[in-house]
Amino acid sequence: MSGNYPHASRLEEVERAFRTLPERYLGAEPGFDATYHVRLGDLGHTWEVRATTHGARVRKGITRRQPDATIGTDSVTWMHLREGRLSGIEAFSRRRLYARGHLDLAVAFEGLFRLPNGRAPLVRVHDVKAGRTRVSTLTMGAGRDVLLLHGLGATKASFFDTAAALSRGGYRVHALDLPGFGSSSKPATAPYNAAYFADSVLGVMDALEIDRAHVVGNSLGGRVAIELGLRAPGRVHGLGLLCPAVAFLKRAYHPVVRLLRPELGIVPHRFGRKTIVNQFLALFADPGAIDPSVADIVVDEFQRIYGSPGARLAFLSAARNVYLEKPFGRDGFYPRLGELERPTLFVWASHDRVIPAAFARHVAEWLPGAEQIVLDACGHAPQVERPEQTNGLLRRFFARVDALDAPARPAAARSAGQAAA
Question: E-strand spans in 86-233?
């Protein structure tokens, strides 16, 4: 669809695409019922799409029904999405699409419909059973598998730019919401420590029939990736660790934190929007470089998810476990780190106030074979603040590991659609 079409021609093409949505509908789990508003700003029109277990209905204009998710873009981008020339994650990464409301539902929209000629959608958001736990997973691309693991209080959305970049580079990418976070299960009795999260990730790999994968983790996700590499080295190609949550050496508040009970998170409470915004922006060296629309999405999602008692319990439990992990001695973090066998890339950030780059010297002492890089003028989430540089480092690292690694089972034919079949 050309961007030079007259307004009437573009509107007619878009309306035809909307009319075909019900016949392309792939169906949904029992009980599913979501209402979407799709706003095409250049045409000045909104379409309402309601998807349920029984089918999909489309109408131009909106009703009084409150949408679960609102998707905004332009007509050319929308047609590229419907034709499979572009995924929603790629459009978001290029800032050609925005979403409001329930972010996971918005991202999942394109995965509800077949592409022309019966092709599978480019992106699927699907629930994967890992034992008794349900792990919300975004899958896109084709090729060797890569797992993306978010940090404390974040969701798979923090890796959207990375997922888009790696999926374009010959990888099948799976961005997970760790149990207790995002749209995944939030079991009240889970320990929410590194071993628990690593076992859950292994369960996802088993369910998706992933023999081995590259694993990328930020902050808490980096600690989980390390644990995965220690517990199941045969399942890991390479580890890309972005400001990973390594064990603190100075723990002045250790006695106080040990006494605090995460179960208190069940008590209803919430953080004000201004507090969340300030905490989010404090993660970056240059908060002004963060797209305000991205900040709005992150803050909205945190407020929505943290409203759940299970999410509060998981957040506080995971934070407590990270802080209390002992650095040395029997089963201490750093002696165990020295046992890591798989190729590992540590990416630190010069302006990280959460996990300072100074931890690199301790990693060098215990794991001298690891590659370590410090990004200048960057904060705690390099994949968000410096996506192009971070993604370039990951691609280079994976290419080197792939060249040296024994071939995994053929993966070229596997795709996002097959993963969710």
Answer: 98-101, 123-130, 133-141, 144-149, 171-176, 213-218
- What pLDDT does 416 receive? 60
Say if CB 218 and CB 151 are below 8 A apart: yes
Sheet architecture: strand order including 144-149: 123-130, 133-141, 171-176, 144-149, 213-218, 236-242, 344-349, 371-375
CATH second-level architecture of 124-419?
3-Layer(aba) Sandwich (3.40)
Q: Over 90: is that where the pLDDT of 253 sits?
A: no
Q: Is the pLDDT higher at 421 or at 14?
A: 14
Looking at CATH, the fold of the domain delimited by 7-118 is given as: Nonspecific Lipid-transfer Protein; Chain A (3.30.1050)
Give the chain's radius of gyration (CA, Å): 22
* pLDDT tens digits, one per residue of 20-75: 999 999 999 899 999 999 999 999 999 999 999 999 999 999 888 899 999 999 99
- In DSSP notation, 395-419 reads HHHHHHHHHHSPP-S--TT-BHHHH
Whether residue 2 has pLDDT greater than 50: no
Residue 286: Cβ within 10 Å count: 13
